[in-house]
Design a protein that fits this description.
Pfam families: DUF960 (PF06124). With 136 residues, this protein is α+β, with helices and mostly antiparallel strands. It is built from 4 helices and 6 strands, in the order αβααβββββα. The chain has a single domain, classed as enterococcus faecalis protein (Nuclear Transport Factor 2, Chain: A, Roll), CATH 3.10.450. The protein is globular and about 40 Å long.
Length: 136
């Protein structure tokens, strides 16, 4: 049985991949990444391996600590780290020399994926696993 959230994530994931080549070919926007949000999605791999509150924390970090502070690339990289049983998010991107960590009170699960990517494709922002990103 597939849950509504999983269906929406799958739908969003495939919608992202189908539109991605077309959108990039014809659209020429000169805006900074993560400033023109048209939709937010989580891939199937993310939805099936992380709880909702952890997924929401990525958007919270981007909206409240990264947007407007740093010039963000289209690809953001996060690591999930065990910090005394709680979850720490480590943010980095290739164009920044700075690495930021964000401590949350959510219980860390050793089965969480260690690395998470967040992409922006012309306003369609998606949280995905690195293996899923390589399929783009």
């Amino acid at each position: 049985m597939i849950f509504k959230e999983q269906f929406l994530a799958i739908q969003g994931y495939f919608m992202y991949h189908i539109e991605n080549p077309l959108m990039n070919k014809y659209r020429k926007e000169e805006t900074m990444a993560f400033t023109n949000t048209r939709g937010r999605y989580a891939s199937f791999g993310v939805v099936t391996s992380l709880p909702d509150n952890i997924i929401d924390s990525f958007w919270y970090i981007i909206d409240n600590f990264l947007k407007g502070v740093f010039e963000l690339d289209e690809l953001l990289q996060f690591e999930l780290i065990n910090n005394k049983g709680k979850t720490t998010f480590r943010f980095s991107q290739d164009s920044l020399a700075t690495i930021l960590t964000f401590d949350f009170n959510d219980t860390f699960d050793p089965f969480f994926p260690r690395e998470i990517f967040v992409t922006d494709n012309n306003g369609k922002e998606t949280i995905m696993l690195p293996d899923e990103y390589t399929l783009i």
